[in-house]
Automatic annotation (TrEMBL):
Keyword set, alphabetical order: DNA-binding, Nucleus, Transcription, Transcription regulation
Compartments, as annotated in UniProt: Nucleus
Name under which the protein is recorded: TF-B3 domain-containing protein
Predominant localisation class: nucleus
Listed Gene3D superfamilies: DNA-binding pseudobarrel domain
Length: 127
């Protein structure tokens, strides 16, 4: 089962500085009280694990956001402004216990047979 924690269209800031998401979108990703930094372990479509350093910051509206250092991943995957990124929680039954992991998905809008569709960036790189 998958639960979407967060999804957004990417901006220049997301790809030039860090990916920022509102802390209210975190759901299950709660930082321990008093901690302002953590590492976020995520898995991409191929199952590769990525470790993103994160910190809590305030944006220009004085709201708390989670700033995610993901530029290495973004550059490796040729992620672009306008692509859509989603963070999901995947749960599975493993050895009679529930296991959960965070998954990252990146999609790009492409035009196919006159219609706009969203396709995983990983698959676009295989062309």
């Amino acid at each position: 089962m998958q639960i979407v924690l967060f999804s957004k269209l990417l901006t220049t800031t997301d790809l030039g500085k860090s990916l920022s998401i509102p802390t209210t979108s975190l759901g299950l990703l709660l930082l321990e009280e008093g901690h302002l930094e953590m590492n976020l372990n995520v898995h991409d479509d191929s199952g590769q694990e990525w470790i993103f350093p994160c910190s809590i910051q305030r944006n220009e509206d004085m709201e708390h956001v989670l700033s995610i250092g993901w530029l290495g991943f973004a550059n490796h995957r040729d992620i672009r402004v306008g692509d859509k990124v989603s963070l999901l929680v995947e749960t599975a039954l493993k050895d009679q216990a529930t296991a959960a992991r965070i998954k990252i998905e990146v999609e790009r809008k492409i035009r196919l047979f006159g219609k706009d569709i969203w396709a995983g960036v990983m698959y676009l790189l295989l062309e």
